Amino acid sequence: MEHRLLRYFVVVAEELHFGRAAERLHLAQQPLSAAIKRLETRLGVQLLERTSRRVALTPAGEVYLEAAQDILHRTAAAAEAARRAARGQRGQLRVGYKPGALRTVLPDAVREFRAHWPAVDLQLRELEYLRVEAALSAGEVEVGLLCPELSDPALTCDHVHREPLVVILPRGHALAGRAPLPLAALSGETLVRCHRPVDALPAGMQLYDAISELCAASGFNAASTQEVASEDAVASLVAAGLGVGLVSASFARTVADTVEVRPLDGPGIDVDLIVAWHTSDASPVTADFVTFVRAAGQRATLELAGSRL
What we know:
By secondary structure, the protein is an alpha/beta fold. Helices cover 43% and strands 23% of the residues. The strands form three sheets. Strands 3, 4, 5, 6, 8, 9, 10, 11 and 13 form a nine-stranded mixed β-sheet that branches. It has a two-stranded antiparallel ribbon with strand order 1-2. A two-stranded parallel ribbon has the order 7-12. The longest helix is centred in the N-terminal third of the chain and has 28 residues, at 59-86.
């Protein structure tokens, strides 16, 4: 059945007057009357009772009106859904992220994205930082939050946040009152650090190797080294008095009530966070999320710069 005929019938049924219905539809009355007759002929039933004084719905017309209004409503809703999808307001977005992103850009980016596009199915996957790029390359996620460098030339990235490594010490440590703290002053301490990933690509080894090089260049000669799997484990062992650690500033702020936190005096190491996506991805959903990540990264950087760390 033609959508146009349904709309004509609904307007006539709402007005119960061909003249007023014709005005609403911007039609002459005679073509409108002919269109309704054509509809009745196709259906094989009379929908309207017409006299010189009144127009009324037949029982069949009352049933058909309800169904026609539902069809028109569904058609309009489908058209709006298509337009929303084209604007990036519907669909699905899968985001893979390294754990540290939860302490910096991700919560704000998610909050703003969902406020603007509530109909998008946003799925978040926490991954080991070496797995984020692999998930992107395999098409398992559309957006990744990870550390540089990327090895897949099909991906585009943008730097969104940078933060320094800081020293954490056990509560009551002799050097706790010194800030900033030269790394060499910690010589003779046990260094608690995250282990070097066994299957890391060269880019994944950079932070581990950079810490080793910094310690050597700064004259920090650790009595021993304790390697663990995460910054949480580093903080736990430092809080227990097992040694000292180097962790990201954003993480240090979350454990400042259990350990002493001090900035480094002299050369340090910055930890970068990037947002990455497929270069060929033209989805407005992806573009919108990346925009909110960039904005959240700027705020996180300013907030960190204004803190005591």
